[in-house]
Design brief:
It contains seven helices and eight strands. The chain is an alpha/beta fold. The relative contact order is 0.20. The protein has a five-stranded parallel sheet, sandwiched between helices. Strands 3-4-5 form a three-stranded antiparallel sheet. The chain has two domains: 150 residues, Rossmann fold, CATH 3.40.50.2020; 55 residues, Ybab, Chain: A (2-Layer Sandwich), CATH 3.30.1310.
Length: 217
């Protein structure tokens, strides 16, 4: 399966999650940045509130795209111990990278939410959304962090990811919804015709628009 763009992926994901439409106490949490575009489409189609849940990849020295693990906003951390040992990464580097990414999470939260409060997650059905997964490290960090909240149910909703990652992540949530799990997986962007970088401004605009679409108390 290949998606035209993140908008189409979100619309397809909304169809797969249509059983949630009209249910009370359901919230959509999207992992920035690209996941917010997907999550917005899901929230809009199902009439649900949208917020961000930020996790940051811990990049390797000299190759920030190589994930040694990930950290969530509450400090929850997932590490690829095998990779760290194989590369001989010092623990003090991990600690510095963790601190650096934690500060970036704080910056992003302030930028994205502005003066809006985070959604209340207590006793809610939480749907965690991203535009795709590869190794799943950032998603695992988010799941571990969310598990510390008294949720009613945690659903992971992802357009595309490799089968082994999908199976691993689905075991860590109450329900996993994956639209496509191709055997020959090379990168998330390879399953989108358009996979442009999502800007901070776009994330801010989508969150603001979603908030305005919700009925006011």
């Amino acid at each position: 399966m290949q998606f035209r763009d993140r908008h189409e992926a979100g619309q397809a994901l909304a169809e797969a999650l249509s059983f949630l439409k009209g249910q009370p106490d359901v919230v959509i949490l999207a992992i920035p940045r690209g996941g917010v575009v997907v999550g917005y489409q899901v929230a809009k189609a199902l009439g649900l509130p949208l917020d961000v849940y930020i996790t940051r990849k811990l990049g390797a020295p000299y190759n920030s795209e190589l994930a040694l693990g990930a950290v969530a906003g509450d400090g929850s951390i997932v590490l690829d111990e095998e990779l760290i040992q194989r590369l001989g990464i010092p623990r003090d580097y991990i600690a510095r990278e963790r601190e650096r990414q934690a500060k970036e999470i704080e910056r992003q939260l302030e930028r994205y939410r502005g003066d809006r409060k985070p959604l209340d997650l207590k006793d809610k059905i939480v749907v965690l959304v991203d535009d795709g997964v590869a190794t799943g490290s950032t998603t695992r960090a988010a799941i571990q962090s969310l598990r510390k909240h008294p949720l009613r149910k945690l659903i992971l909703a992802i357009p595309v990811g490799p089968p082994e990652t999908a199976a691993m992540l689905s075991k860590e949530v109450d329900q996993g919804v994956f639209l496509s799990t191709p055997e020959h997986f090379w990168a998330v962007g390879g399953f989108y015709l358009t996979f442009d970088q999502t800007s901070d401004d776009e994330v801010v605009a989508l969150l603001r628009e979603s908030a305005l679409e919700q009925p006011q108390a």
